[in-house]
């Protein structure tokens, strides 16, 4: 591939997946600046080694795996932090009242905070499934584990989030879905 074609391809990939990769990196490192550095490093490595991409998975899955690996390299062992996620959620419809938007945002903040306190194996699966809206098959490919492992981690992660939400009074005992 010629340099011009590679440049165009990289720009397209960055436009398509950049914000998803940034959100994913942020869920690991809890720092906007560090997440941006990780995503930038991933795009640089992708650009340099673009010819080596074999196409066994989609480009999106490949880049997600690169981000996960880079985050794991950054944190050899995860230190749990109680950092609230802000501005990472989809905007509410304009037709809802201000009061309901505030309540919904508060609920989303509590859920996001609960997810960030989980072990990495549950946090990453919940995040990829609910916030990045990836399929279980794609998540299994990104995390290099079986589909059944992803399903188990989703179920256990939901249960743990439900327990945390119940303790905080935001949960009525029904399964978190």
UniProtKB/TrEMBL annotation:
Gene3D superfamilies: 1.10.1740.10, Winged helix-like DNA-binding domain superfamily/Winged helix DNA-binding domain (1.10.10.10). InterPro entries: RNA_pol_sigma-70-like, RNA_pol_sigma-70_dom, RNA_pol_sigma70_r2, RNA_pol_sigma70_r4_t2, RNA_pol_sigma_r2, RNA_pol_sigma_r3/r4-like, WH-like_DNA-bd_sf. Keywords: Sigma factor, Transcription, Transcription regulation. GO terms for molecular function: DNA binding; sigma factor activity. Transmembrane segments: none annotated. It comes from the Bacteria. GO terms for biological process: DNA-templated transcription initiation. Pfam families: Sigma70_r2, Sigma70_r4_2. Belongs to the sigma-70 factor family. ECF subfamily. This is Sigma-70 family RNA polymerase sigma factor. It comes from Lysinibacillus pakistanensis.
């Amino acid at each position: 591939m010629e340099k011009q074609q590679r440049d165009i391809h990289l720009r397209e990939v960055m436009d398509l997946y950049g914000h998803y990769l940034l959100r994913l990196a942020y869920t690991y490192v809890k720092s906007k600046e560090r997440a941006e550095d990780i995503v930038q490093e991933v795009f640089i490595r992708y650009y340099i080694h673009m010819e080596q991409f074999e196409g066994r998975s989609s480009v999106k899955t490949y880049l997600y795996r690169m981000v996960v690996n880079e985050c794991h390299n950054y944190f050899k062992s995860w230190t749990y932090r109680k950092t609230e996620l802000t501005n990472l959620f989809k905007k509410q419809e304009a037709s809802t009242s201000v009061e309901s938007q505030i309540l919904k945002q508060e609920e989303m903040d509590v859920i996001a905070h609960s997810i960030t306190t989980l072990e990495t194996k549950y946090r990453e699966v919940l995040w990829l499934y609910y916030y990045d809206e990836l399929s279980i098959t794609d998540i299994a490919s990104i995390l290099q584990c079986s589909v059944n492992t992803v399903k188990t981690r989703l179920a256990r992660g939901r249960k743990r989030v439900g327990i945390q939400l119940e303790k905080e009074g935001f949960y009525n005992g029904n399964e978190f879905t």
